[in-house]
Amino acid sequence: MENKDLNPVEHIKLRSDGLRGTLKESLQDNYTGNVRPDDEALVKFHGMYVQDDRDRREERALKKLDKLYSFMIRLRIPGGVVSAGQWLTAHRISEEYGTGTIKITTRQTIQLHGLLKHQLRDTIQGFLQADLDSIAACGDVNRNVICSSHPQVSPLHEEIFSFADKLSKHLLPKTKAYYEIFVDDELVYERETEKDELYEDRYLPRKFKIAIAIPPTNDVDVFANDIGLIAIIEDGKFVGFNLAVGGGLSTTHGNPNTYSRLATEIGFISGEENILKVCYEVLTIQRDFGYRGDRKLARLKYTIDKMGVENFKQELEKRSGISLQPLRNYSFEERNDRYGWAKDSYGKWNFGVFIENGVIKPDQKAFLYEVANLHVSDVRFTCNQNLILGNINEEDKPKVQKLLAKHKIGQKDSALRVSSMACVALPTCPLALAEAQRYLPELITKIEPLLEKHKLAKDEISIRMTGCPNGCGRSYLAEIGFVGTGPGQYNLMLGGDRLGVRLNKVYKKQVEESEILDTLDGLFDKYNQEKLKGETFGDYSNRVLFG
Amino acid sequence: MLAENKLKSLAEWAKGNSKDELIWASGYLAGLAYQSGPVAAEEVTPAVKVNLKPTIVYATETGNSKKLAVQLQTLLKKNKIQAKVSDAFQYPLDKIEKEEFLIVIMSTQGEGEPPQNAQKFYDNLGNLSKDLSKIQYAVLGLGDSSYPFFCRAGEVVDQQLQRLQAKQVLPYQKADVNYQPVAEEWFAQVLQILQNQGTAASPVASLPKQASVPDGKKSYTGTIKHKVVLNDVGSNKQTFHIEIISEDELDYEPGDVVGFYPKNSAAEIAEIGKLLGMPLDASSLEGKNIKGLSKKSLQQLAELFEIEITEERADLIDILEKYPQREAVELSPLLERLHPVAPRLYSISSDKEAHDGELHITVTLNKFHAEQKAKKGFCSSFLEDYPVGGSLSFYIQKNLHFKLPEEDKDVIMIGPGTGIAPFRSFLAHRDVTGAEGRNWLFFGEQHFVSDFYYQTEIQEWLSTGVLTKLETAFSRDQKQKVYVQDRIRERGEEFAKWLADGAYLYVCGQKEPMSRDVENTIVEVLTQQNDWNKEEASAFLETLEIEGRYLKDVY
Q: What's chain B's Rg over C-alpha atoms?
């Protein structure tokens, strides 16, 4: 591609000197809470986004104050498991800096919001002391690798789970800019030692996501990822992965060239070395063939559709020197998280806690702080933005139970609510067109009586809301999905399945709350009367509305 | 600034001198510069040998009297008259009879009171019983004619010295806020008298009693056009940016101040009426000072109400509440004992050209507790409550001591909190006039997010280059508190270099502890950077002050 055809972010990456840019100077700029324009793009590679409180813009302008800039920092936690000690660190840092809220993301990690620029170095250093970092948590690189989080479901969980960390490390950028900018004042590494064979100076054209699913659970929404690895278990042994490539949900309103796409399964791979090698070469193909002219058309899904799946597969086999084997059989049976107590195959106890939209409320936070102080469990984040206290010994279970009772944790929420998901959206996300995290709980409260009325209160209908078409809330894979189009307005998406293998479709465009409730009321009524035996609401909608 | 050949010869000369000699010479040259100023009313007449040894005693709150004392000392020295200078605070009154020629420069505060640390001198002089008939003396009083008891403290000192039989060689001279021209004229007369060995050269009666320059105040009526709190959510402060317009052309320059006469609220007057047991017309009390009454005023009230008041300072309403057993009184004797409200002064934060002839002020609502009661500052709450669109009386006062230098001079501005006000005016002015001098601003408050006054304007000035450098110190954004003086210390090398290169230094904001801490830090920085001892650094700063290159507007 000609240099002039590259989109502006490509130029920023190329001239960034290993993702350094002028970030050091930006941190020193005392007149603004923001970083310099190029650095806004670069800071993402270090796990941070700059945001501004859009609710405060107008009033602050009158007060002659700049926009209220703050940073979101997202940790890299492959597989989403931290120790009790690491949780305490996150707790302490969140109390000291930012809004005080810890948010569990749909990619199995946690993020803090509202950090001020001058707090970033202290924050990052604090996390590093607990062996946590935010490297490559955002940006055009392989991001946090996610993995099914339910150890009780498969006895092979631990073995498969370890691939999350191995892949993450294998695909990390080589630059030490993170340490240089946020930890030491001195130059600690020479650039020559940072030569990056994978990312070169270009990095990827766009973000890159990898998920590992352990059947029968598809809590990771494996087909929504650039690389989906589906663990194949035969005769009680883990034998390898079915490899799926080219998934991605985000679209752009009014841009017909953009679309959601489920990942295509292209073959079976086995053996650790082979698995790492094949995944690595998927990234190099995307690096070399991905479209760098327009970021909206840069994801792997477009690269693969342009090349054709067969050509892509051949290129991958050529680059890796590994032949993909025929796909193996597996089946998904669930996608939701499990709440409450469950024992895993190692005899350890786990307790699933529902966290609405991943926002840990003050009472939940207080509970988690006390539990972590016991040091009898780890803390696991799920892709449904919930949390599991894992790895608890039989004899420690009563101590946790006592705290559960004390803080009234685990009391029953509706089936719809525990099957819900929303992205951050307003006021901080710069992309948001409509509310999500702040509004979905309220909308669910209004839908719950309708479900009661139609005797559907026990149905775990998946409901998801995202504030813009980029799909962080994975609304395209919900039975009832909302994609924000403007203030108070959403595209109502129906017909997705419960397990995350079929995309939903737009049923009504730009509808407001009253119409949403009327529509759902009517549909619930018809569903009750017309559903086939065992047919989910998503399957019914797909059959009747789009069939 | 010097022609190349002059600079060369000066550098040549300097080579042959020690550091101490150079420092002495710099002071000497500064003295020469002062003498060649525009108001050089005196000429050196070395033929006259003066035997009198005058002592100059000054009593100062803000440093003006001290500045004048040093100016007079320099002038006399140049005329071969060695004068001692003493702060009233340290002056040994028990040996006053040994003086030959006493010059007192006395400021007046509040309700005609002397500066705080001169109170002892003032009281003891009043109680003194000595024969001072051998002493000749002259008193210069500084004050503000907007206040009642204009220059009263100096007047009392003059009367006391007369009572003790000291010989007055000049009638008591009052000087208003623009004291400099009056003082210089008065100095010339003092010099002349000294050169005549203590006798007035011309008859005393012919000396001017009033300043020959206008007092620099002009009254206006205007309207509050716009009012906004600059602080954002989460701040502990409430600082108003207020824009005032007038049908008359508002005539001011950067550095000038605006005076308001706040009025007591109708609610408070009604409350006082209730406590007094009589209906009160709002107009009766709205212009009377009923807040923070001095001990003297309280004593007068105590006599009127026939009660014992123990407070040192209190509001009228508190006294009425606290002493219900007081005698019932008529309104008129009460009104007689209350003084009119004194005006409150604020630095103007706009530039008339840059801001379309408007006048802006930057006022923090002063909130405090007195005797466990939450109180608000009189004028700041008056302005807080004043309706937008309401007509408002005020006056503009020239502040000749706080002016921008010539266009090409560099300027360092230290203005934490509302101390930024005149510097917003400075920067707007330098922006609109395209002044070439560099500008360095030090600003501080509690929080970056909520208390960065005029942030977007400062960003604009930085991006256009009007503001050369900016230092910020937000005290409560980190565990360890950081203040503007810490930034001065961090930038010590450059700070000293700017001063060495001729930058003008301005400080505006709270007198205590800010301006003192800043000054101490500057001395520390000068000591380190120039390899001076503390006295040399202080002397350098004092020279800057006398030369008008170190200017303070502190309160």
A: 26
Q: C-alpha distances in angstroms, B418 versus A483, B175, B404, B469, B555?
A: 47, 28, 18, 19, 11
Domain count, chain A: 3
Question: Which segment of A388-402, A456-470, B49-63, B333-347 scores lowest on mean pLDDT?
Answer: B49-63
A114 in contact with B, Cβ within 8 Å: no
B448 and A118 within 8 Å at the Cβ level: the answer is: yes
Contact A62 B228 (CB under 8 A): yes
B231 to chain A: which residues are within 8 Å by CB?
63
**Average pLDDT, 10 consecutive residues per value, chain B (555 residues):** 60 63 54 42 49 89 86 89 89 90 91 86 91 93 85 93 92 88 91 78 40 63 96 96 96 95 91 88 88 87 89 89 85 88 92 96 92 87 93 90 94 98 98 96 97 98 96 94 97 97 97 95 97 95 90 91
Superfamily of domain B217-263+343-397, CATH level 4: Translation factors (2.40.30.10)
Q: How far is B458 from chain A (nearest CA, A)?
A: 8
Confidence (pLDDT) at A186: 59
Tell me if chain B has a CB within 8 Å of the CB of A63: yes
Closest CA of chain A from B19, distance in Å: 38
Together in a domain, A326 and A199: yes
The C-alpha of A115 sits at a distance from chain B's nearest C-alpha, in angstroms, of 11
Interface of A with B in 12-31 (CB under 8 A): 30-31
Q: Is residue A86 part of a domain?
A: no
Residue from the list A56, A63, A66 with its beta carbon closest to the beta carbon of B228: A63
Is ipTM strictly over 0.85? no
User: Which positions of A are catalytic?
Assistant: 74, 143, 207, 209, 423, 429, 468, 472
pLDDT score, position B235: 96
Q: Supply A91's token pair.
A: 């707790």
Task: Single out the residue in A313, A335, A357 at which a domain terminates.
Answer: A335
Q: Other CB atoms closer than 10 Å to residue B306's CB: what's the count?
A: 11
Say whether B228 and A65 touch across the interface (CB within 8 A). Answer: no
Whether residue A302 is found in the same domain as residue A289: yes
Q: E strands along B115-198, which residues?
A: 136-142, 167-168, 173-175
Instruction: Kindly state whether B459 is in contact with chain A, defined as any CB-CB distance less than 8 angstroms.
Output: yes
- Report yes or no: B388 at the A interface, CB cutoff 8 Å: no
Residue A10 forms part of a structural domain: no
CATH class, B411-554 region = alpha beta
B230 in contact with A, Cβ within 8 Å = yes
Residue B56 phi, psi (nearest 5): -105, 115
Q: In the CATH scheme, what is the homologous superfamily, with its name and number, of domain B4-206?
A: Flavodoxin domain (3.40.50.360)
Examine residue A216 and say whether the peptide bond preceding it is cis (omega within 30 degrees of 0): yes
User: Considering CB atoms only, which of B228, B230, B448 is closest to A116?
Assistant: B448
Residue A377 lies in a domain: yes
The pTM of this model reads: 0.80
B217-263+343-397 and B411-554 in the same fold: no
Tally of residues, chain B: 555
Q: A374 lies in a domain? A: yes
* pLDDT tens, position by position, A194-251: 889 999 999 999 999 999 999 999 999 999 999 999 999 999 999 999 999 999 999 9
Output phi, psi for A342, to 5 deg. Answer: -155, 145
Tokens of B336: 């007689």
Same domain, A433 and A381: no
Nearest CA in chain B to A31: B459
Domain boundary among A407, A430, A465: A407
**Calpha distance B484→B488 (Å, rounded):** 6
List chain B domain ranges. 4-206, 217-263+343-397, 266-337, 411-554
Q: Which domain holds residue A496?
A: 417-546
Domain with residue A295: its CATH number is 3.30.413.10
**What is the pLDDT at residue B25?**
57
Contacts with B218 (C-beta within 8 Å, 6 or more apart), sequence order: B251, B395, B396
Residues 6+ apart with CB under 8 A from A129: A89
Is residue A68 less than 8 Å (CB to CB) from chain B?
yes
What's the rounded Cα separation, in Å, for the pair A60 and A28? 23
